[in-house]
Amino acid sequence: MRKIICILIVVGLGAIFSSASAQNVVRIANETATPPFNFVDGDGNIKGFDVDIAAALCAELGVKKVDIIQDWDGMIPGLIAKKFDAIISDMSITDKRLKVVNFSQSYYDEQGLFLTLKGKTIDFSVEGMKGKKIAVQRATTFANYIKGIYGSSVDIKYYETPASQILDLFSGRVDLILASDVFVHKTIESEDGAKLEIVGSPVIDSKYIGDGVGIAVRKQDTELLKSFNKALDTIKSNGTYDKIYDKWFM
Amino acid sequence: MNLQIVMEYTPEILAGVVVTMKLVVVTMVLGLLLAVPLALCRNAKSKWLSIPAYAYIYFFRGTPLLVQLFIIYYGFSQFESIRQSFLWTFLSESYWCSILAFTLNTAAYTAEILRGAIKSVPQGQIEAALSVGMSPIKLYTRIISPQAALIALPGYCNESVLMMKGTSLASTVALLEITGITRNLIAETFMPLELFFLAGVIYMIISTIMIGGFKLLEASLSRFRVEI
């Protein structure tokens, strides 16, 4: 009996390690918390624009895609620690991130939008924002934007996911949310969205928001980066990209 | 491991130590105040007292602290009636929601520790005290409490240290204590190893101080104890 258990353990461990090192598998991380870019549907399937783009790219490259779900603030540390090979998760290309990882060409242009409860008037000058409570997701470009523009004159609250920001906007714990335009529009169209309102002008300052959304890979994986860029060119020119774009944003 | 980073960010994380310590001290005081009556109810002969106390302890021991915190922070805020009431002055703040969750949780565990300690005072002493005409209050203050406190102390020390480490969960409800600040810094520097290591060392220092304090307290409480 003991022998059998030993054999089973050895075989089991062997299976785990061999599958992790098998070739032609690309492990792609996404957050599954930012619909419609990436989310988990009612049946537990990972879905979204990012997921379809990842699938199209992997099909183009002829590699097997493995989805890895990763919390947002552990994304880049996880990539560096080789928990996965690429991040395709609505991640903006910023100078700060470029210092530690490489990005593919942009596959989406993102803006930030301010969201508040209907009927609130917000003065966006530094003076007018004094003491306002603003919700951002931890480790996002929007967090950097608020910090850069308003500094310590506002009370920045850091959240784990975009959804928890919305909860605290409804409860009145925060005055404003800054989040991605697509997420904000999606929220407004939802059931409770009627109580919400987009205010101010879109945030497009590339100093904070970066130059579009790209695929992040480790610095040393130059081959993978090249393949992703080439595959992005292909799906953009052969219509696959447009099809996926229309599916999620039109 | 980049020690430069550790040195550079130590002052920023130390700002979180103040918040963590406030959470710990307030929670310990309120938790103990709640635990004493709970333990007495739990030991009471009347079912009307012991069953509710047991139900309370059962709930808070049986569910994760994180879930309790989320129910209080995100759950209660869903109700318009709570948002309109005076309670909202406290519940709208991450800080007080955290205090409430930690207090209710630690009170349940502490009450069980106290209950065991009270039970362990020999029945003979209680009977002797009653037979010389001591009132129940005197019995508690002079016979049971001094001995029970000493028995409860090691267990209570354990619970306090556990609770101190549990305060790191407050970072999930937008409170910037040690863990919250550390995670923000990691978002800026992408250096989880160095910064989590630093946070770990800080937590360890706090727990060392707490354990030392409890040792001193134990020594002072047992100074009249005669070794048999």
Index terms:
heterodimer, A: 250 residues, alpha/beta, D-Maltodextrin-Binding Protein, domain 2, 2 domains, 5-stranded mixed β-sheet, 10 helices, 24% strand, globular, B: 228 residues, mainly alpha, MetI-like fold
Describe the protein in words.
The complex is a heterodimer of chains A (250) and B (228). Chain A has helices at residues 2-21, 49-61, 75-80, 95-98, 141-150, 162-171, 181-189, 206-209, 222-237, 240-249, and strands at residues 25-30, 39-40, 46-47, 64-69, 86-92, 101-103, 112-117, 133-137, 155-159, 176-180, 196-203, 213-218. Chain A is an alpha/beta fold. In chain A, α2 crosses α9 (222-237) and α2 (49-61) packs antiparallel against α10. Chain A has 2 domains: 24-109 and 212-249, Periplasmic binding protein-like II (D-Maltodextrin-Binding Protein, domain 2); 112-209, D-Maltodextrin-Binding Protein, domain 2. In chain A, strands 4-1-5-12-6 form a 5-stranded mixed sheet. Chain A starts with a helix and ends with a helix. Chain B has 228 residues and is an all-alpha fold. Chain B has one domain (3-221): MetI-like (MetI-like fold), CATH 1.10.3720.10. Chain B has 10 helices and no strands. Chain B is flat, with a radius of gyration of 21 Å. Chain B starts with a helix and ends in a 7-residue tail after the last helix. Chains A and B meet through α3, β9 and α6 of A and α9 of B.
